[in-house]
Amino acid sequence: MPTTDTLNRDTTLCISLAARPSNLGTRFHNFLYDEFGLNYVYKAFAPTDIEAAVIGIRGLGIRGAAVSMPYKEACIPLLDELDRSAAVIESVNTIVNTDGRLVGYNTDYVAVATALTRHEIAPGTEFLLRGSGGMGKAVLAALHDHGLTTGTVIARNERTGPPLAAQYGFAWAPDVGDLTAPLLVNVTPIGMAGGAQEHDLAFDRSAIERAQAVFDVIAFPSRTPLIAAAEGLGKPTITGAEIIAAQAAEQFALYTGIRPDDDQVRRASEFSRA
To answer: Is 72 a catalytic residue?
Structure first.
C-alpha cells in the first residue's frame, strides 16, 4: 500500500460507497496492493448524494468503486453500461472506470455462484431464501443459474418479495412459519453485529436441524447465530466471510487486471478482520 512517502500524482484511487462503510474492503484491497507492489490506494466513503459521487468517479479518474446499500440500484441510471452480472439482477456492487466510461458489475453474484460450486450444492436442491433486497437479488439469481429450480423466497415486503420470486418461478411466503428445506439461505440483517437482531436466528432450530446445508451472507460476524447453530449440528455452511472475500477478490481483478490466488485472498481476508 502506498505510504505518505510513496503516494504521488500517479497513484490510482479506488473507493467504496456505502451508507455505513466498514474497514473490511479498505484493509482487504490495500493488503493486496501492497502484496503486488501496486501504486494504488483504497478509501471508503459515505456519500449523501450518490449522483454527485458517481460524477466524481468519472471526473476525478477514480479507477473503481465498490457500491453497498442503499446505492446498488440508485447508481444504475448514472452508468454507461451494465455487465450481464449486474443487468440480470438490476443491482450493481462494483463500478469500473475505463477512460471515463463507467461499467457496472455485480461481483456478489459471481462470488455466490463460485461458492455454490465449491461447496458442491447439488442442482435441484430445494431452498428457503429469507430476504428480498439487493443482495437477495444476487443470491437468488445465482441459485437459479446453478440449477436450483424449487424454492421459496421469504419476505414480509410484499412490494419486493413476490415479484422477485416470480421472476425465477419460485414461491413466495411472508414469513418462515413451519417451512423447511434442504438449503437455508439468509440475506437479511438478522444476526448482524450491532443490529437490533444480532443475537437472533434467521431460521428456527427445527428448520436448521432438518436442513442439509446453511448459507448466511452476513460478513460481520462471519459466525452468526445461524452459522453457529448449523455448525453445532454438524451442518455444512457457507459464510458471509467467504462471500465478501470472493467478491472483493473479483473487484480487485477488475480494477487491476491481476487475479489473486486462493492463499492471497485468504491472507487478505484474515488481515481485513484483524
So the answer is: yes
CATH number 3.40.50.10860 is the correct assignment for the domain at 12-105 = yes
Give the tens place of pLDDT for each residue, 155-189. Answer: 999 999 999 999 999 999 999 999 999 999 999 99
Q: What is the pTM of this model?
A: 0.88
The single residue of 43, 72, 137, 235 carrying the catalytic annotation is 72
pLDDT of 4: 47
What are the DSSP calls for 200-259, one per residue? --SS-HHHHHH-SEEEE---SSSS-HHHHHHHHTT--EE-HHHHHHHHHHHHHHHHHS--
Nearest alpha-carbon partner for 261 in 272, 246, 240: 246
Fold agreement (12-105, 110-241): yes
| pLDDT tens per residue, range 26-78 | 999 999 999 999 999 999 999 999 999 999 999 999 999 999 988 999 999 99
For the chain, domain boundaries: 12-105, 110-241
Classify domain 110-241 at the CATH class level: alpha beta
d(CA 225, CA 198): 8
